[in-house]
Structures are given as structure tokens and as C-alpha cells.
Write a structure and sequence with these properties.
CATH class of the largest domain: Alpha Beta
CATH architecture of the largest domain: Alpha-Beta Barrel
Shape: globular
Structural class: alpha/beta
Low-confidence stretches: 160-165
Strand content: 25-35%
Number of domains: 2
Radius of gyration: 23 Å
CATH superfamily of the largest domain: Alanine racemase
Helix content: 25-40%
Length: 422
């Protein structure tokens, strides 16, 4: 469920008219719904016990206003960089609710996280373990650690977002798990607290999750038998969302929660979950304006002012996003098959191929749906195009929560060396 719907012939975000908003803030822009963010967080959290730490995956949407909205609902944060750590803290997420994942944590980042007093480090390699031990010891601290263990489970998702198999840069191979825990137990600045697993993203079948979680339970039993105090299990994120209305819908949070309880309750460990896409994707849209309608020999191109620099998912993952007209078409409106493309100088700058839409003309507005996760956060200034602005709505109010950088500001990020000034 989301809070984007037609009212009086115009698409609204909650109570905000998106056509009027486009005139005020310009296009393209991302628009996030507070009501949808809050509802999705609440529905997910209610599927688990109150003791469960729901750590929102900041990489899915790192806008401070989005993070602060979720922080007020009780969310923690899963971060993968020092920058994301700073964002989470600035948004009001307590360090005691932050877990730090990622394969390339630098000593500077480890130091910042240790000094902040985060809840847990999800360690992904033996070199990282040694770096964390050295850093913590230099500060006179102990680092709470869970190792990310690859269970060797096929997530049955896109190859670029599958992370739980043996040949991936993420995590520690299953065959090395007990040895790595034994090594960690010898280090004075390391406190073993749990086990972490994450098998991938946009997973729409519970079976891979269940297979991975049951392997984790088996491992927890072995590790406890080895003398390790395993009090936490971090099950990662990855629950998919319905990008396509014609596909079988992904499992609902309550079904996911029931499966998790059945799989891991016997361990009596505290659970950590890292949802990102499930909370943010359908809470956001990308609004763009038609620049031109171009007729080719066999295709008609709808050229819009948003590009792959604003939303890279279709180009990178062949991802599907529904696209709708902001002005509601009538029941008898003529339909046209378009390739919806952006202005970036790349053939891959395409949002949809052969997409059936109402007839549109120059100046009309379209909304690219389910763009609240891995949208603005992955944007760039490719082709010297400032990324889209971001707007958050709440009931009938709206605020620009990331302004569009103007051309002068974009140019100001470059520096000319002295020998070229003359």
C-alpha cells in the first residue's frame, strides 16, 4: 500500500497535488510520502517481537528527512560507510541501534563507529577482524562483533544483488565460520555477540530465506557448543516489493515474520533485521516532464527530463518500474506504445521499452513509481546534469529535503590548478 492516488484528475502524494508541486519545485524531483514510510515500518515491525531491532538499511535511502521520519518510529540503522554512520546519527538514530556492515571498512571508519558506541560490527573478513581488534585496542575499547557468514544459499534474485552464495565478495565462507570465531575469541579487544547473514535483495520467495536461516540456527548451536556466547542473530534484509502489478506479489511481512519465528525462535537470541527496499521503495516516486515526443521508424520515444543519472536501476539491473501520467487519463483515452527515455547520452538511458501509456505530449508530467529505494541515493551528475531534487510530503504539507544543485554549484565542485589559470 502507498499514499499516491488520483484526486480530481491529478495524481496526489497524500494531499499534495503533484502537478502543482512540479510547477513550484521544477522537474525532475523525487517525492516521498511520510504516511507510507511510517505504515511500512509499522507493518514490518509488528511482525516481530518488541525486542527485535529493526535497523533500516541506509543504503536504500539515505535522505536525512527520511531517516529522521523512521527514527521517530523507533527504527535503528544498518550502515555500510562512515558517511552513512554520520547520517544515521545526525538523523537522531541512537548509536545503540546502529549496526555497521560492509566489506571495506577503513580504520578511520572503525574508529568513528567505536567512539560512537554502535551496537554491532558485522565483520566480513579476517583482515577486517584484525584491523578492528587493533583499532579498538588503541582506544581502550572492545568491539561487539557478529560475523557475516555465507550460507551457500541461492537467493533466486538478480545476479547483481545476490550475496549469500560462496563466490561473492561479501561475508565469510561457511567452511571457515567456526575457525574465524575461534580466532576472534583469542583477541582481547573483540567481544563475540552474534551471527550475521544476508543472502541478497529483492527476494520474493520465502524458501531461500528459510533455508539460510535454518543453516544459521545450526551454526549457532555449533558455536555455542564451542563456548561462544551467541546472543544475537542478524538476519539481514532483502524482502522484495511488488514492482509489477502483473507478477505474483512477494510475501507479506506477517508471513515473513511467522517463518522467521518458526526457524529461529529455538535459539532465544535477539533478532536484528535490516529492511530497506520493503520500507522505502513504494514510499517514493520520481516525477518527470516530457521534453519531446519523437517518432522513429518503428518506435515512438517519450523523452523526459529525468535520466539514468537520476534513477539508474533500469539501466543497471534491467529493473521494471510502473510509469503513470500525473494527469489522470479518461476511460476512453487513446493509448500509445512508447519507449520512455531520458536525455543522457547513453543508449542504456531508458526507463521502459514498449510501454503502453495514454497519449502524451510535450510538457506533460509522468511519475515513475516505486522509486523510493535505490533511487536518489544512487544518483550522479553524469553529463553534468544536477541530480533530481527530493521532496517529503506529510498530509497536505511538503518540503524540499534535498535541493537541486544549480549549474554554478555543480561547476564549483571542480578546481583549476594554478598552472592552468594563466
Amino acid at each position: 500500500m502507498n499514499h499516491f492516488s488520483y484526486r480530481d484528475g491529478v495524481l496526489h502524494a497524500e494531499e499534495v497535488d503533484l502537478a502543482a508541486l512540479a510547477d513550484k519545485v521544477g522537474t525532475p524531483f523525487y517525492c516521498y510520502s511520510t504516511a507510507t514510510l511510517e505504515r511500512h515500518y509499522r507493518v514490518f515491525a509488528e511482525a516481530f517481537s518488541k525486542d527485535t531491532l529493526i535497523a533500516f538499511s541506509v543504503k536504500a535511502n539515505g535522505n536525512l528527512a527520511v531517516l529522521k521520519t523512521l527514527a521517530r518510529q523507533g527504527a535503528g540503522a544498518d550502515v555500510v560507510s562512515g558517511g552513512e554512520l554520520r547520517k544515521a546519527l545526525k538523523a537522531g538514530i541512537p548509536a545503540s541501534k546502529i549496526v555497521f556492515s560492509g566489506v571495506g571498512k577503513t580504520k578511520v571508519e572503525l574508529c568513528a563507529a567505536l567512539q560512537a558506541g554502535i551496537y554491532q560490527f558485522n565483520v566480513e573478513s579476517e583482515p577486517e577482524l584484525r584491523a578492528l581488534d587493533e583499532t579498538a585496542a588503541s582506544l581502550g575499547l572492545r568491539a561487539p562483533v557478529a560475523f557475516r557468514i555465507n550460507p551457500g544459499v541461492d537467493a533466486k534474485t538478480h545476479a547483481k544483488i545476490s550475496t549469500g552464495h560462496s563466490e561473492t565478495k561479501f561475508g565469510i565462507p561457511w567452511s571457515r565460520a567456526r575457525a574465524v570465531y575461534a580466532e576472534a575469541a583469542k583477541l582481547k579487544a573483540i567481544e563475540i555477540v552474534g551471527v550475521d547473514v544476508h543472502i541478497g535483495s529483492q527476494i520474493t520467495d520465502l524458501a531461500p530465506f528459510e533455508a539460510a536461516f535454518r543453516r544459521v540456527v545450526e551454526l549457532v548451536g555449533q558455536l555455542r557448543g564451542d563456548g561462544h556466547a551467541i546472543g544475537r542473530i542478524d538476519l539481514g534484509g532483502g524482502l522484495g516489493v511488488p514492482y509489477r502489478a502483473d507478477n505474483e506479489p512477494p510475501p507479506l511481512p506477517h508471513a515473513y515474520g511467522a517463518m522467521v519465528r518458526e526457524a529461529v525462535d529455538s535459539t532465544h537470541a535477539r533478532l536484528i533485521l535490516e529492511p530497506g527496499r520493503m520500507i522505502a521503495a513504494n514510499a517514493g516516486i520520481l516525477v518527470a516532464r516530457v521534453i519531446y515526443v519523437k517518432k522513429g521508424e518503428g518506435k515512438t520515444f517519450l523523452i523526459v527530463d529525468a535520466g539514468m543519472n537520476d534513477l539508474v536501476r533500469p539501466a543497471m539491473y534491467d529493473a521494471f518500474h510502473d510509469i503513470v501520467a500525473v494527469r489522470e487519463p479518461g476511460p476512453d483515452a487513446e493509448r500509445v506504445r512508447y519507449d520512455v527515455v531520458g536525455p543522457v547520452c547513453e543508449t542504456s538511458d531508458i526507463f521502459a521499452a514498449d510501454r503502453d501509456l495514454p497519449r502524451l505530449k510535450d510538457g506533460d508530467l509522468v511519475a515513475i513509481l516505486s522509486a523510493g529505494a535505490y533511487g536518489a541515493v544512487m544518483s550522479s551528475a553524469y553529463n553534468a546534469r544536477p541530480p533530481a531534487a527530493e521532496v517529503l510530503v506529510r498530509d497536505g504539507d511538503w518540503a524540499v529535503v534535498r535541493p537541486r544543485m544549480d549549474d554554478d554549484a555543480l561547476l564549483a565542485t571542480d578546481r583549476i590548478p594554478g598552472w592552468l589559470e594563466a
